[in-house]
Structure prediction request, 162 residues.
Amino acid sequence: MLKAHFEINPKYIKESKRAYVVRQSKNTDITPQRIVYNVTYKEWNGQYYLNHVRGELDFSVKKKDRLFSRSTTVHTFFEIVVCKIDDQDVKLFSRKESFPVSNVFSETKFQYDPIFWGNFNFILPEQNLEEALERISAKIEEGVEKSITKLPLFKGSSFDIA
Prediction:
């Protein structure tokens, strides 16, 4: 299997509320409307590894105790892309470094580690988008100046310029 697309059956989506809404304001009612996942895998050294995950979540948000209150649809998504696979000396995360598998979003304070990201391009959620794009563009231009022939393309190798 290289790709999976799945979603919660609309017939049962209201019953999945407790799995997706852990905490909400007492003045607000949040109900899942649509939950969709796309997962892809890629082959590397004869084994298949996770490549890309995208989840799309639609929720209906309505104020309680209001006679003519309209509900608002909130669309959010999460995405992860595997850029580099390293299967040497793999160790499990400690319990305090991992989240429960049922949590998609968390209120945990998290600090990005620039050393962890290395030369990969990333945009911090709170970073100004224009500044981030300038930084990434500078990296791309810097990479283009290097010899492109040194970059292994499409043979299961990663490439971290763009």
Strands lie at 3-7, 28-44, 47-63, 72-81. Residues 146-162 have pLDDT under 50 and may be disordered. The longest helix spans residues 129-145. Residues 42 and 48 are 5 Å apart (CA to CA).
